[in-house]
Structures are given as C-alpha cells and as structure tokens.
Sequence to fold (585 residues):
Amino acid sequence: MPDFDVLVLGGGPAGVNAALAASAAGLKVALFDENPAAGGQVYRAPISSAMPPTGDLLPGDALRHELDQSAVTTYFNHVVWAVTADYRVDAAGPAGPVHCSGRALIVATGTTERVVPFDGWTTPGVIGLAAATILLKSQGILPGRSTLVAGCGPLLAAVAAKIIEGGGKVEAIADIAGLGDWGRTMPAMVSRPDLMREGFHWVREIWSAGVPMLSRQTLVKVEQAHDGLHATLAPCDAAGRPIAGKQRSVVADCIAVGHGLTPSSEITRLLRAEHRYSRQAGGWIAVADQDGRTSRPRLYVAGDGAGIAGAAAAGHHGTLAGLACAIDLGTHLGTHLGTDLGTDAAQLRSRVQAARQAHAKAARFGRSMAQLMALRPGHTDSIEPQTIVCRCEDVTRAEIDAACDAGAHDMNQLKAWTRCGMGPCQGRTCGDVAAELLAARVHGGLREPAGCLSARTPLRPMTVEALTGNFSYDDIPIPMAAPL
Amino acid sequence: MLNDETMRIDNSNRATTIRFFFDGQPASARVGESVAAALFASGTKSLRASPREHSPRGMFCLMGSCQECLVMVDARRVLACRTPVADGMRVETVPEAGINA
Fold:
C-alpha cells in the first residue's frame, strides 16, 4: 500500500498548486523540495535578516500560506536522489534519509539556467543571472560593487534594476536580442499590462541610473586582472554570432550572465517517459497533454520543467496537473477507496476548464519571453576551440569537436569519450550546449538524433552517510554462503 | 541603503552578525545567509580548483545545481550555497582540489 496518493517533486508555483489541487480533491499528498520553503526560484523566500522591515507581503507569501493551511505533507530541505518506476521517492533530509511511495507522481522540477560558454566564464566572480537574483532577492546581498549584466531575456532588466535599487552600480547591460526581438513580444506583453508595467518600471530605473543598454552585444571574453574582471563585448548578429565591429571593454567586480533556461527533465527521462526536443520550450521535455499527463500512467509534469512558459503559467499548469491526477486516480480508485472522488468528477472537470483558460492566457506571455531566451545556433557555433564547455571536467570545445569527428554520434558516446557531462553536475550545466555542438557537427543541426545525456541516480551527488543514515551493523542482513 | 563594506543591502539593521572561518580566516555573515553568499559578499570568490586544469572556481548557480561551490564543513562535503552559516562554523576548501593543489 503506497504511503501517499500523490508525490509532488518541486515546491515552486507549479508544484505547490499541483499539491493544493490534488489535496483539495481529497487525495493524500506529499511535496518534496530542496529549499527551506516553498516558492521555487522565482518566489524564493528571503532569509529572515533580508526581509523588508515593513513586513510587506512578498510574491510567494500567498503560496506559502496556502500550502501551510492545506493538508499537504511537506518535505522541505530534502534532496530527492532517486525515483523508481513504481513511484517510490528516496530523499536525503536534515534528519536523515526519507523513503515514500505514491500511486501517482507529479514532476514540477523547474529549470536550470543555461550559460553559453565564452573564454573565462569559469573565472570566480562570473555568476548566472539566476544566481544574481538569489543574492539580491533572497540573501539581500549585491553581486558586486560594480556589475556587468549580460546575456538575453527578461532577467537582464530584472537583475539590473534590483542592483540599482540595492544601491549598486551596473556598468552596462549587454543584450544579445535586438530591439526587433523585443518588438515581437509586444502583442503578448499587451495581454499582461501588469507585467508590462513592471518591465517598464525596471527600464525607467535603468535609464535614470544612466546605465548603457547595449542591444545585439555579446560577451566574448572575461579575464581576471588586479582591478577586477575585464570583460570584452562584441557586436553580434541575430543568431548570436559575434561579428566584425567595435569591441568594448568593461571592468566590473561581478559579471552576471545568462542565456535562458532549460527544463529539468531528468526525472521523467529516468522514468523512460516519451520526450521530445523543443527549442521554443527550452530543450528536451516530456511529451504530455495540455493537463500534464505524460506517456506513462499516473506520471504528470507541470510548470517550466514541462516547457518554459513563465511563473504565472506554471501556477495554472500545476493546478491542471493536480486536477488531472485527481480525475485519473478518482476514476480508478474512487469507488473502492470509499471516497467521494467519483461523484466530484464533474466538479473537477469544470475547474479544469477554468484553469486551462487561465493557463493559456498566462502562457502566451511567458512563451514570448521564452522566445527571447531560446538557444541561438550562431551563438554556440562561435564558442572558441580552447573554451571550456564542461566545467566539471574541464572539457573544451576542441575536445568535443574531435570526439564528434572521430565518430561520437550521440550525447552518451560523447560523454564516454570525453567525460563531458560526467562530473558532479551530471551535465545540467553543459548538456544542452554540448548537444547543440554535437548536433551541428554530426547531424546538420538536428537535436533529436544527438539525444541527451541519460539521467542517472543519484540525481544529485550524495555522501554514503546521507544515504544510510544512522544504522546498526547488526541490522545488515548477511546472506548465507553458497553451499560449495 | 547599502553597506558599502559588506555589500549587504541594508533593509533593517536588525540582523545579528555572526562570525565563521574559511580556511582559518575570519569572515562574517548575517543570520540565515548561505556560506556561499557570505563569502562572496566578503570578496572570497575562489572556493576550489578544477580537478584537471587546477583553475580557480567559485560559486556559479547558487541553487544547488552546478556543484562548483563544494566546500568542507565539519569534515563533510557540502555545497556552500545550500549551507546556512552557523556561528563559529569552520569552512575549509576540499582537500584534493585546494586552490594551490
């Protein structure tokens, strides 16, 4: 008998709303997240000493409050390191290992930030845009006295504005996207006047601080010098490839850079659900219906991990997955569980209709932002041969190219030949870019035949101690010796 | 609004400052800060060296994904970005990949 009806992995807007919807429908739900509180990366709770003094409600507070008031069992500060085909979850928490099983599994694991490598991107002081957001919003710390903000997507303006509000200096914003790219997002922006206002507020702050906003400029090199990090910016084309023209040099003590987000699909890949590649959605995603049902029975995906559509859409997508799960489990189990899930099916279906409409509206905005952050082929193609692509194992572009030329034709072969993606991050940092390089060199740019790195447990590096917890040697079963 | 020495955005002045050590050198943090954030704010950005090229590495993603900020706390391997500072905590570089390895 499973411990829970549903296990939800991930406590961002998608996971929490999925858990709430399933719990409200009468299911017994448990939610796991690595962080100390719900909110995910987008609504990450600030540490107590970085809280605003007025006690203003923050985005995410409502989410956290609703979860607190619900019947959902929560496992925060728990790192999920294994998920099995019968939906058993193994996690390591502060009080030791936890094992739980569920009839159904909802995966809402969000995304990883993509940074397309450039010379010197491993230099300490170069951090992701998402990392800068965590420093600013959660830790109450400026990334630097002076910061260069580079890459693409809406996080550029968000990070720059937060630095300025915090009293820091932004040396420049270098955006790969051009004004035309932003112009194409206007129809979707107009559909969300609230978010558009927030965006204009950021731009106003950046303007009044006199920060240069450089469009179609890309970061090509960072060097450590005695007075800080020296960054070189070059003009680029629409494909993200540096072109001839005047290069600029910027000195800063922090460089925050990001080139979009890739869905974290390790768990659904581990469970062998069907997947497809979508450049628009950010990478490899589980094939799913509009409510998040995957190709595998009682396995659901929700939120940006199912394809980038933004935080607002993620919440509605989570609700949809939670409802889908309640409907599916209800039709199988409602009668013999003696619950009223079956009789409530009509009510659940009407909630589905409302959530689908809200999701479609929110996703339109989120997907237009995602388009600004989609991987640009010219950008990866312009990575220099000596540049490290896999940070964990120090594997360069030239080594990847050499392996491709020697016959490596998919990502797992590339990994075996070069160690690219074999290190402690398990390819989360380099996998998308390495696959793009392989696809371009071997498969004429097609990503499907290049494949992706096999997901493996443990899903995060673990110490043996974290896995075993406290145990007595007497409890270890010793098998009988073979009768020879 | 900004404490220029510590890089901390000063919202409240009510935070308690605690002390900890990185490779024996004293450092300070506000209660609740992660080891990675507190060290970054104090200008300590290199935390280890890469295994093959021995080039300096430090915190990068801050959310437990990239594994670049691996350090030792109480003889255990932990990610600096997922470990809140405790008063008097002793943080060390990982032995086999020290900065000067």
